[in-house]
Amino acid sequence: MRIAVLMTCHNRRETTLTCLKNLYDQDLDFDVYLVDDGSTDGTGKAVKQHFPEINVITGNGTLFWNRGMRMAWQHAMAQNISYTHYIWLNDDTLLHDHALSRLLAYSKELQDKHIICAAINDPLLKTFTYGGKDVMSQPVPPNGSLQRVHYMNGNLVLVPKYVVDTIGVLDAHYRHHLGDYDYGLRAAKNNIQVYTTPEYIGSCESNKALKTRGRKPGTTLTERFRFLYSPLGVDPIAQFIYQKRHDGLLIAIKNFTVIHINNLLSNGMRKFYADKIKKESD
User: Fold this and answer.
1) DSSP at 189
2) Region class of 96: left (phi > 0), else alpha (psi between -120 and 50), else beta
3) Does residue 215 surpass a pLDDT of 80?
4) Do the Cβ atoms of 102 and 178 come closer than 8 Å?
5) Model confidence at 159: pLDDT above 80
6) How many CB atoms are closer than 10 A to CB 198?
7) Of 39, 109, 130, 260, which is most buried, counting CB atoms within 10 Å of its CB?
8) Is residue 276 scored above 60 in pLDDT?
9) Nearest alpha carbon to residue 22 among 103, 92, 122
10) How many CA atoms lie within 13 A of 268 on its CB side?
11) What is the band of 282 on the pLDDT scale with cuts at 50, 70, 90?
12) Are β-strands 115-121 and 128-130 bridged in parallel, bridged antiparallel, or unpaired?
């Protein structure tokens, strides 16, 4: 087996270094490809100082998660190395003991022809934070067995070479989010399933900022739309491409319209319509 661990980071040096130290505590040999996407806090330099064996690729600060991971993946594939497995790892995710060995063992059970999405829990509460979700986007917590899931978060994911040969890498249409969901759904369309692990094998706190992605509170109309179209917002163009591909053109158009109306309305108008809808439904 030859394993490539793919990562991307931006301006959280200590978090990245902690993740890498934790990664190298694993009982496996692997190569790490880390995109330092325009960090100004010395992350890339610190990584090379502490882990000189890591392949650090420099980004320009506009890649964000999906395109950063895609760049790391393409760089790994460009080497004269026949990797059998690629592992996505977020730099805010800490691996439990033998996490990578368990991912590989589960993949072997599936003949290395499917994707394994790790179940991730909160480091303190021990509750589900990231991993697989069902068709209704509800979390699928581990139950002691491999379970098929509909959607997957990209915090810790194992992708065998067979999958890459079949569907390629992450899609460049997406800058930050949706790339992981899209990859899993594209796989399913090619008879490749996504499974979640029987137990939690990593920890990561939930990102509270995701709750304000659709409309940033306390901002002017101009600021709202600037954020909406940023990689950290909904990014309506990427959302439209994703929904057209997986849900159909009509749903894509409907949601594209709703997103913009939601941001055009003032806070008072939104509250008025929300109260009216609630009253009518009671």
Assistant:
1) T
2) beta
3) no
4) no
5) yes
6) 15
7) 130
8) no
9) 92
10) 0
11) low
12) antiparallel
Q: Which fold has domain 3-203?
A: Spore Coat Polysaccharide Biosynthesis Protein SpsA; Chain A (3.90.550)
Which is nearest to 92 in space by CA: 43, 59, 139? 43
The C-alpha atoms of residue 149 and residue 116 are separated, in whole angstroms, by: 10
User: pLDDT (tens digit, 9 = 90+) per residue, 69-107?
Assistant: 999 999 999 998 999 999 999 999 999 999 999 999 999
Cα 201 to Cα 56: distance, rounded to the nearest angstrom = 26
Cα–Cα distance measured from residue 206 to residue 62, given in angstroms and rounded to the nearest whole number: 23
Among candidate residues 242, 121, 122, 221, the one with its CA nearest the CA of residue 170? 242
- Report residue 56 as tokens: 């650090």
Every domain of the chain and the residues it spans: 3-203, 211-281
CB 51 within 8 A of CB 16: no
Distances (CA, A) of 140 to 81, 116, 148, 196: 35, 13, 9, 8
Token pair listed for 263: 């941001």
H or E stretch covering 253: helix 249-264
Between CA 178 and CA 54 the distance in angstroms is 27
Quote the pTM value: 0.91
Length of the chain measured in residues = 282
